[in-house]
Automatic annotation (TrEMBL):
The keyword Lipid metabolism does not apply. InterPro entries: A-D-PHexomutase_a/b/a-I (IPR005844), A-D-PHexomutase_a/b/a-I/II/III (IPR016055), A-D-PHexomutase_a/b/a-II (IPR005845), A-D-PHexomutase_a/b/a-III (IPR005846), A-D-PHexomutase_C (IPR005843), A-D-PHexomutase_C_sf (IPR036900), A-D-PHexomutase_CS (IPR016066), Alpha-D-phosphohexomutase_SF (IPR005841). The gene is glmM. GO terms for molecular function: magnesium ion binding; phosphoglucosamine mutase activity; phosphomannomutase activity. GO terms for cellular component: cytosol. Residues 396-451 form the Alpha-D-phosphohexomutase C-terminal domain. Pfam families: PGM_PMM_I, PGM_PMM_II, PGM_PMM_III, PGM_PMM_IV. This is Phosphoglucosamine mutase. It comes from Prevotella fusca JCM 17724.
Length: 463
């Protein structure tokens, strides 16, 4: 039984008692709070809210509750149906809506669902705005419209095509080179909305494709997180030969991973690195990723004469920093590409178009392109703590311990990150569990894991 409320939305497992899991009562309360928040931002205005969802099995139930609640508050609803997260983000902006709700639990398993909240720009709410929504929900500080003030409802399935058109109009998409390369790819869409929109995109790009798990049934064929241990099916298929690339997306298509032509993982961290390298070859500028992402992006940025900046973990933190420093490309190491020339949101369609453009222009195989970038490895560990452990105090002590060392750069905007000359380690407390996440990176996996475990022992010795 799991229900998690945070400033970025509400998520949980389906079924069980209200208040313990994501149930209709919880959905009504949270959507009511969000709509009230949006209404207070636009006093006196008849609200328009976009709703889109991934294909997970609970989607129709959650969508009906969400849309009915919005109408009850008095908002007009534009339901765009099965849609990717970036499509829904763009639909808010394209339709002139006042906000949007994405019904997706992203890479969480099939029995999970969630609500992600957007502002009028089609971007995720800030931490302050998310906290205000939670406060309104906790106080149940909302009321519903009378019969004459209820909202309307309309279905609009035009936004997939409009999203694809947006990608096709990107100045740095080299459509001629992509078509001339005559790529042949395999796509794993995990039986969600990638199976709906990606065939249309690949057709426009002139790419020949085979889909694995391309039916948008929501019955996910494997664990949805696009990491190596979950992708043996597509890796085996690509290994048979005859393919230029494997393409993997998560259920809501904001994360993107590639399989090399030899069947090996390209490396999810290197999706953003590769796209950034391509962008920076054509446009000078700065880049941003979060503190837990690979140092390779910094190296590539500096090679092209730009400056790299790190943000706290979380997409809204990345986009805020990108706007602050005028970044031309940014994202997260989990395969999230954020390209401002399209919009401020992770978008696998944009990532696919630009990655293929890079491959086509360079005339390389995927494995050859991968070898042009600095080689780093990230180890991921965790420290389990008791519920009454003062995690903040531990992190302060770690900062004090290493802050005196001249070869260590300490960053504390999100936990504590220690940058050594040839490696880094990031300690960050979980918002939902009594644990500290420990991410570390070095030139070999063994060195990365050893660094992480060294810091873990430092923390254990403090308790």
């Amino acid at each position: 039984m799991t229900l998690i409320k945070s400033i970025s939305g509400i998520r949980g497992t389906i079924g069980g008692r209200a208040g313990d899991t994501l149930n209709p009562l919880d959905i009504v309360k949270f959507v009511s709070a969000y709509a009230t928040f949006i209404a207070r931002k636009h006093p006196g205005k008849k609200l328009k809210i976009v709703v889109g969802r991934d294909a997970r099995i609970s989607g129709p139930m959650v969508k009906n509750v969400v849309c009915g609640t919005l109408m009850g508050i008095g908002a007009d609803v534009v339901n765009i149906g099965l849609a990717t997260t970036p499509t829904t983000e763009l639909a808010v902006r394209m339709s002139g809506a006042d906000g949007g709700i994405i019904i997706t639990a992203s890479h969480n398993p099939r029995h999970w669902n969630a609500l992600k909240l957007l502002n009028e720009e089609g971007e995720f709410l800030t931490a302050a705005d998310g906290a205000e929504v939670l406060d309104i929900a906790d106080r149940e500080d909302f009321e519903y419209a009378d019969v004459d003030g209820m909202g309307s409802y309309v279905d609009d399935d035009s936004f997939d095509e409009r999203h694809i058109e947006e990608v096709m109009n990107l100045e740095l998409l080299d459509l001629e080179a992509v078509k001339n390369r005559k790529f042949r790819v395999v796509v794993d869409a995990i039986n969600s909305v990638g199976g709906v929109i990606l065939p249309k995109l690949l057709d426009r790009l002139g790419v020949e494709y085979k889909f694995l798990n391309g039916d948008a049934t929501g019955d996910f064929s494997h664990n949805p997180e696009p990491i190596a241990q979950n992708l043996t099916g597509i890796m085996d298929e690509v290994s048979k030969g005859g393919y230029d690339l494997g393409i993997v997306v998560d259920p809501d298509v904001d994360r993107l991973a590639f399989i090399q032509e030899d069947g090996q993982m390209y490396g999810e961290e290197y999706t953003l690195v590769t796209v950034a390298d391509y962008i920076l070859e054509h446009v000078k500028g700065n880049t941003v990723s979060n503190l837990s992402s690979t140092r390779a992006l910094r190296d590539v940025t500096e090679k092209h004469g730009g400056k790299y900046y790190a943000s706290a973990v979380g997409e809204v933190n990345v986009t805020t920093k990108m706007k602050e420093v005028g970044a031309v490309i940014g994202g997260e190491g989990n395969g999230g590409v954020i390209y401002p020339d399209s919009h401020y949101g992770r978008d696998a369609l944009v990532g696919i178009a630009l990655f293929l453009s890079s491959l086509a222009q360079k005339g390389m195989k995927a494995s050859e392109l991968r070898k042009t970038f600095p080689e780093y490895f990230i180890a991921k560990n965790r420290i389990d703590l008791t519920a009454d452990t003062d995690v903040d105090a531990i992190l302060v002590r770690v900062k004090e311990l290493y802050g005196q060392e001249k070869d260590v750069q300490v960053t504390d905007i999100d936990g504590v990150k220690l940058d050594f000359p040839d490696a880094w380690v990031h300690l960050r407390k979980s918002n939902t569990e009594p644990i500290i996440r420990v991410y570390s990176e070095a030139n070999t996996m063994e060195a990365a894991d050893a660094l992480g475990k060294k810091l873990m022992q430092v923390v254990y010795d403090m308790q």
